[in-house]
Amino acid sequence: MTPFENAERLISVFGRWPSFHDAEIVRIALERGGPDGPSLAAQIHVFAMTPEVDARGYYGSKNHTLTTLRFCRIRLRELTDFNHQNVIFDLEVSEIDPPSNEGRRFHVEVGTSYGCAFGLDCVRMIVDDVQPYDSPP
C-alpha cells in the first residue's frame, strides 16, 4: 500500500500503484506559502508498458496519464538537471522520524535515467490529479 493520499486515482487507471520507471517529469512547481507550504507539485507523464512489440521492435504502452503529485511542507534537499526530457528511473518513499525532522514523515527520492532528479522530506504526499494524456511525438 502506498502512503500517497488519493492513491486510488492512479490505482483505478493501472490496477495497482505504478512503478514510475520511464515516466517523465513534464513540469515542477514550487510554492512557499499556503497551508501546505512550502510544497512541490510535479506533473508526470505516467504509463504502463505492454508485452506487445511493434514493427520497429519497440514495446507498446497504454494508460497514458498526466499525473500531478504534490508534496507538502517540504524540505527540498536536491533538485537537479531539469531539461527537455526528464525520465524517471524510480520513485522511492521511506518513512522518517517526525520529531527529528520538524514533523516531516517521509523522505522521497526521484532517481533519474536522464534529466531531472529530486530529493525531499515532507509531511504529506497527495495524488492531486490524474488526466488522460496524449504524449507528444
Shape: globular
**How far do the termini sit from each other?**
34 Å
Instruction: Tell me the radius of gyration.
Output: 15 Å
Count of strand segments = 8
Strand numbers in spatial order across the main sheet: 1-2-3-8
Low-confidence region ranges? none
Mean pLDDT: 95
Note the run of SSEs as H and E: HEEEEEEEE
Total helices: the number is: 1
Helix content: under 10%
Q: How would you sum up the major sheet?
A: 4 strands, antiparallel
- The tally of domains stands at 1
Q: What percentage of the residues does DSSP assign to strands (E)?
A: over 45%
Please identify the structural class as seen in this structure.
mainly beta
In brief, what are we looking at here?
The chain has one helix and eight strands.
Structure description:
It is a single chain. Helices cover 5% and strands 55% of the residues. The protein has one helix and eight strands, in the order αββββββββ. A four-stranded antiparallel beta sheet has the order 1-2-3-8, covered by helices on one side. A four-stranded antiparallel beta sheet has the order 4-7-6-5, with no helix packed on it. A hairpin with a 7-residue loop joins strand 1 and strand 2. It is globular. The N and C termini lie far apart (34 Å).
Spell out the blueprint of helices and strands.
Blueprint: H1 8-14, E1 24-31, E2 39-53, E3 59-72, E4 75-80, E5 87-95, E6 106-114, E7 117-122, E8 124-132
Antiparallel strand pairs: 1-2, 2-3, 3-8, 4-7, 5-6, 6-7
Keywords:
mainly beta; single chain; 55% strand; 137 residues; 1 helix; four-stranded antiparallel beta sheet
